[in-house]
Each structure stands twice: as C-alpha cells, then as structure tokens.
Amino acid sequence: MTIKLVAVTACISGVAHTYMAAERLEKLCAQEKWLVKVETQGALGIENSLTADDLAQADVVLLISDILLAESERFEHHRCVQIGINTFLRTPEKALSAVRKAAASPQETHIRVV
C-alpha cells in the first residue's frame, strides 16, 4: 500500500535534530515506497511549508516534535501520528508502524507514540 505522508519535524533548539529527523524520514519513506513531504520548523523558521492541498491529499500527518508546533490547528481534522523527536531517531520503526495503523483508521484518528 502506497501511503501519502506529510510530516513536520521540530526540536527544542531547532537545529540538528529537526533536520536529522527530516532526512531519516525521507530515507525510510523511499524504502517503503511512500510519498512524503516534510515541513521543518527550525532555527530558520518554517521551511517547505505544508499547504492546504498537501494536507488534503495526505493519508496521514506525522508530527515528529518535542515542542509545540506553529499552526498545529491545521492537523486537527486529519489522521495524525505524534512522536517525540528523540524517540523517532532511536526507534523509527515505531513511527512507521503507527503510520500504517493510522492509514487504516477513520479520519481524525490521533495516535501518540511513546
């Protein structure tokens, strides 16, 4: 099953982990043959911003963050998986498993991975 995934990565300092997580996710999605667009919220502000169209076409929204995300209300009515950035970097398979589960769930399903 090809999943269309959109994601946001953000860490406390807004530097290394934000971009490490984005890069790791892009590689994992390539292996899974999933389509992905990643927005980063880092020291340089919001980059590669997700559009309303991106969100409308996505099967799942993956939020990889340890901080409150800017404009988080955008994700309320979508299937959403939330995971801390350190948890994602240590065990990304947990996030992928939750994304698969969310993709098969009703709209507005929110899953928190710990």
UniProtKB/TrEMBL annotation:
Q: Which SUPFAM superfamilies match?
A: PTS system IIB component-like
| Highest taxon in the source lineage | Bacteria
One example GO MF annotation? transferase activity
EC annotation?
Answer: 2.7.1.202
The positions making up the signal sequence are: none
Positions of the PTS EIIB type-2 domain: 5-101
> What is this enzyme's catalytic activity, as reactions?
D-fructose(out) + N(pros)-phospho-L-histidyl-[protein] = D-fructose 1-phosphate(in) + L-histidyl-[protein]
Q: Which UniProt keywords apply?
A: Kinase, Phosphoprotein, Phosphotransferase system, Sugar transport, Transferase, Transport
Q: What EC class is this? A: transferase
Return the Gene3D superfamilies for the record: 3.40.50.2300
- InterPro entries, from UniProt? Bacterial_PTS_Sugar_Transport, PTS_EIIB-like_sf, PTS_EIIB_2, PTS_EIIB_2/3, PTS_IIB_fruc
NCBIfam families assigned: FRU, PRK10427.1
Could you tell me what this protein is called? protein-N(pi)-phosphohistidine--D-fructose phosphotransferase
Q: What is the lineage of its organism?
A: Bacteria, Pseudomonadati, Pseudomonadota, Gammaproteobacteria, Enterobacterales
